[in-house]
What does this fold into?
Amino acid sequence: MRSSFILIIIVILGITGCSFDKTVSVIEKKEIKTQYQVVDDKGNILDFTDTPRKIYATTLSLEEILTDLVPLERIAAISEPAADPKISLIADKAAQISLKLPQKVSAEQILAIKPDLVIVQENSNTAFIKTLKDSGLKVYITKVPTTLNMVRQRIINLSVAVNEKQQGNRIIDELDHKTKFVKDVIGTMSAEEKKILMGYSLLGVFGSAEGLFNDICINAGVTNGAALAGLVRGEHLSKEKILEVDPDVLMFSDYSSTQEGDTVLFRKEVLSDPALQSIKAIKNNNIIIIKDRYRYAASQYIGDGILDIAKKTYPEYFKKNKK
It folds into this structure.
């Protein structure tokens, strides 16, 4: 009789134990809704147990990507420059995000908004990034793009990080559509028709061969005059070099976000400079003006920059081939 009783107890405990294991398993499955892993551009592994809902990006180019990748309510805060219609391409979207942080944001200001993902560029201050990481925040570090292909890859990588791959693909498709259209149009031109373009900021001629603007020029079907002259990043291009290159087109920005000053006045000074009157661009009045953000568009807006430069440099070709 006693043996039968013990056997019954063992059976009951066995049944209860199985039921308990199943219950724990169900609870665990409910707690982990989504789980994925990404590797940033510095090789850091980030594990996500859920899709990030409070994201902060530390540069305007990253904000440009983010505002197209995710619903605006998933952006914890936006920078003040992003909301400035004079320089920003996303001012209308930034206006819908209530919290604005200064351009030179501190680690403490970011920590205060408690984001579940912070996206930074690799050229950010090392101590700044370390403070964010040491505080327990997820920090995704991205390279600074110097080519169109790097910009494309940046968008793809960030779409994976924020768990929006489909939207990322849509952005890439639109970007590719613009760049392919330009390629198709300029592909009908002869080598002799290709023009040399020289870009100016308020600091002078810009666009070294290693920079993103040079690749924008290549994709727009123009030769970057600064690279042709051997301009080194951080250095100044002499008037003698400008005369030697003899650009067909001079390009200016509608506004400069890098230095205070009257953009229109600066443009007039360059175009009226007695030393430059012999270059083809000035003699033929071949001057184009683009949005300042297009100069180094390290986001999906690189497609708009390429298209704008190409259309304004070769208007006769794009009139024949309307998009």
Residues 82 and 308 are 21 Å apart (CA to CA).
